[in-house]
Amino acid sequence: xxxxxxxxxxxGGGTAGLGAYRAAKAYTDSVVMIExxxxxxxxxxxxxxxxxxxxxxxxxxxxxxxxxxxxxxxxGEIVINGREVMDRVKRERDRFVGFVLEGVDEIxxxxxxxxxxxxxxxxxxxxxxxxxxxxxxxxxATGSRPAYPAVWNELGDRLVINDDVFNWDDLxxxxxxxxxxxxxxxxxxxxxxxxxxxxxxxxxGQVGPLTDxxxxxxxxxxxxxxxxxxxxxxxxxxxxxEGEDKVEIQFINHDGELETFIVDYVLAATGRRPNxxxxxxxxxxxxxxxxxxxAADYYTLQTSVETIFIAGDxxxxxxxLHEAADQARIAGDNAGRFPDIRAGLRRSVISxxxxxxxxxxxxxxxxxxxxxxxxxxCFATGEVSFENQGRSRVMLRNKxxxxxxxxxxxxxxxxxxxxxxxxxxLAHLLAWAHQNKMTVSxxxxxxxxxxxxxxxxxxxxxxxxxxxxxxxxxIKHCLDCGPGC
Length: 485
Description:
Layout: E1 2-11, H1 15-25, E2 31-35, H2 42-45, H3 48-66, H4 82-105, E3 112-114, E4 117-121, E5 124-127, E6 131-140, E7 144-146, E8 159-160, H5 162-165, E9 174-178, H6 182-193, E10 197-201, H7 213-224, E11 228-230, E12 234-240, E13 247-252, E14 258-263, E15 265-268, E16 272-274, E17 308-310, H8 321-337, E18 350-353, E19 358-363, H9 366-373, E20 379-385, H10 390-394, E21 401-407, E22 413-420, H11 423-435, H12 440-444, H13 454-467
Parallel strand pairs: 1-2, 1-6, 2-3, 6-17, 8-15, 9-10, 9-15, 10-11
Antiparallel strand pairs: 4-5, 5-6, 7-16, 12-13, 13-14, 18-19, 19-22, 20-21, 21-22
Binding site for NAD(+): 179-186, 271
Active site: 450 (proton acceptor)
EC number: 1.8.1.4
């Protein structure tokens, strides 16, 4: 058994682990990073990048299909070569992973330890059966993994998660996607547009990460117009067909009738769980939340044990790459500079779903505002529909709606939920305004070009300002907006 004494041990070599390692190294050379699996982040290998590659292929098909709306008629049948689609996805995915691995290769070999770590006590880790690490401080950065009902394992290799999709050599004929959240919506719609027969199922009626009932209702209707979606389905049975690489699903359809759907794969997109259950946390004095995750200070990422920090998806806060990177810098910095603990910068919350139309959320959600301010009526909602918004109609992308929220009295912008064209870009503008604690009036003083989709944001803000009684009532045909707005 080898023994290693270090100042900081980082468990995990993904986005959060790599970031925490680099941040801690700014204060001490005595840092080790422990990784049991392959290096390369979730984002690069099986998350944001390969999914966007698949979505990009699907968007190219969709643009051809939309062309007749502009009077342009492509000749001949659209041929989707599944092998070529997946070949590009994998080639580019491997390229992105390669960039991550180049960074890992730059880390000194003595700072990397292969194996799975488990706590022996608050300051001691056992890595597999070969190394004991005595660490003055520890950062947990073990990421997350897909979660789904254990009974689904009976489907064998016909059950897949998003990780598996990006290793396909060809596109299948039919797929049932369970979970209309971020992953399910993105992959389900992309596969549908690429010619795969898709049905997207959920339980409870939730669509995407949305909490605003009106926006969610719009999203549910918009997706149903394109592909089969039942966000609160009743499944009667799901079983592998004996002797075949197929799964039979019987469910009650929208007409209340029993329907059978035969698929090549069942794609589980039913959420993720932090990878903390195999760390031996019971051997520590850490206080855990209801999911068994170490509770941590939002601004310092310090847990109830002052020498243990947590970052990234393992923290069960906001499972997004930019959040993991921010948390990594804070946790690694504090582990390195301990005991001089400092609050780190936590930026305004921003999230996006790369569906079409896109979904995005900024700042406080509608649900959070209802909980915090709803009982006193202390916030108002401004809205705009993109269905008649000028630039959106020009591009035949006029689907969606935006809600912006503002505080009564102060006029401060509190957050937004939306579904619409270029929502990823609109969300950035709104997130910057939110982080700068701008009022709705101050936001309206910013420049808006014509004709752009962003004019829809101005319309919603004007509506909100009027409802906050800080500005005039909306003018139906605004002269400074130009025609079509």
